[in-house]
Amino acid sequence: MTKMDLWKLTARETADRTLAGDVSVEAVTQAAIDRMDAVNPALNAVVESLADEALERARALDRQRAAGGRLGPLFGVPVTIKVNVDQKGHATTNGVEALRNLIAPANAPVVDNLLNAGAVVIGRTNTPEFSFRADTDNPLYGRTHNPWGDHISAGGSSGGAAAAVMAGIGALGHGNDIGGSVRFPAAANGAVSIKPGLGRVPAWNPSQSAERGMLAQSMSVQGLIARAAEDLNFAMPSMAAPDPRDPFHVPLPWRGAPLDAPIKVGFTKETFEFDLHPEVSRALDIARDALVDAGYEVVEVDPPLLREAALTGYRALMGEMQALMGEDLRKYGSPTLNAIFDEYYAQFPPYEGADLLRALAERSRFAREWSLFLEGYPLVLTPFLPQPFFRPDRDAEGAEGVREALGSALWSYSMNFLGLPAVCVPARLAELSDGPVPINVQIVARRWREDLAIDAAAAIEARVGRLCDSLWARMG
Questions:
Q1: Coil, helix or strand for 295?
Q2: Of 189, 339, 383, 422, whose CB is crowded by the most CB atoms within 10 A?
Q3: pLDDT tens for residues 70-79?
Q4: Counted domains in the chain
């Protein structure tokens, strides 16, 4: 591998080489920046290049290594940060024109944790307005394009992060997920991502002027998007380091105790009122067979109360959004975003007043039933979406567009309401009439056992291969 090809390394491979002194952090960082300069103009995934400060940090890390200083586990790994999270001295725009000048006074915990581990931030990535679409486009920065082609949305809301990682811009992309925002773009781009469980990764934005609503606090988590499953288990312990600014963070060890083999995996193809596309069915079969061959015991199951939990959770979230953010969305959101929210409210009628309080109380019932279910099945293999990923702006095409892009994603936002960890991993590359489309599946885990879900994703990846290799061959 030449110095020009260093951008192809995984996070673990990069850290292994920089820690061993085989390659300098500056060389790795320059390679990532060169790749960004080469492919980002066509993708618009990174909306703020941090090339100069990244190279300055890289040289400082190289000097630190030469002096025998402390080297973190992510030493020299190039990463990106989503523009809805505070990074000192940079605007936390959240894709909104009115927030263009909201300069962060300090880093969010997740940024500090990555920097303390030795990572190098090379850029900040795009998100839709208010980070509340399954597609990534906004009036401030424009559209992020999927590196597989313009026939597929880049997903959202962490669309910039996923498109960047898969195109080779940084080994890791930070994202966050309140209803699917690290899993939608992973599915769109063929990346692998982790939505940690509630309490795993500390979160807070020093720039915020008020606390978020309780559902936003309990459904939103900070996660990662990567090209290789092993990078999630490699990097997430650093992301999950404690920070006193999040008083509800739970500082448990990342890896739990080994389970007796074979680990039982519940398996379902249930998509409720939505048709299961043959390509998604094939991807689920491939994932199931990969797990069986890897030594897991896979059993068909009927998970409890999934649809009810999903719809209750999303209607409650819409109620909280309408009450606490409705005025800002109307005032600062584009006509496109407001039309989409009108359709969200139509398809997910917001709970209000006592009904909202009852919905919040019901969350414990749903979570309890799933906790009991996961005692028997520590992992559950599920669809993520019932159909291949949709085209750009599908969610702006009225009722049917919102129904396909978001309404069908019951397996996504249910996991946020339940607070459970979920990994999204590619299991197939479908060659459809418009072009290639990655097909991802989801692995849900017991609370605090993200590591088990990632291990299972790695077993699927071992069968399927990393989709980035096919993508890079196509990109040239």
A1: coil
A2: 189
A3: 999 999 999 9
A4: 1
